[in-house]
Amino acid sequence: PDAAIRTFRAMAAHAGNAMETNWAYQGLAQVYFSTGRFAEAVGAGRHAIASDPLDDESLYTLGWSLVAMGDLEGAEGAFARVRALRRPQYLLDAVLSQAFVRAHLGRADALEPIRATADTLSGSGRLHAAFGFPLGRVTEAEVLAASARRDPARGGAWELDAHFALGMALETGLGAAPR
To answer: How far is CA 153 from CA 121, 126, 143, 157, in A?
Structure first.
């Protein structure tokens, strides 16, 4: 990780435009996050977003970095921004992450991101409309169980759409929502 950090820092120092700045800080944020340096991940993520406010990847990484730092309100806001961009790459993960964080905050509208987006999501998103676990009682096991279904359109293959959000929750130590 140290070599990657040095490389991304050098890229940031020599960036000639906003896109290069964004790439450098986005890379730094991801390396910092993956090595548990969450405060630095937050800082790098904010730099990346400052150079490209529509960067859903950096917003998503920032969200989970904020979760790791205990700033659930900030994380919910980052996930909401990703969701508002409505780009397919991070939409489902952002929806699940936002719902998960809202549940940890004890918000009665914890499932609203899932319900509001279920019709928009294609393919595997259809099954998220059937989420039926109680508000404020979302655990990683329930999210995983609700997300893992056999998709007849894919020959019965299992889909695990929440795997990344679940992994991020476990990696940051957020764990299960309080009961």
So the answer is: 15, 12, 22, 9
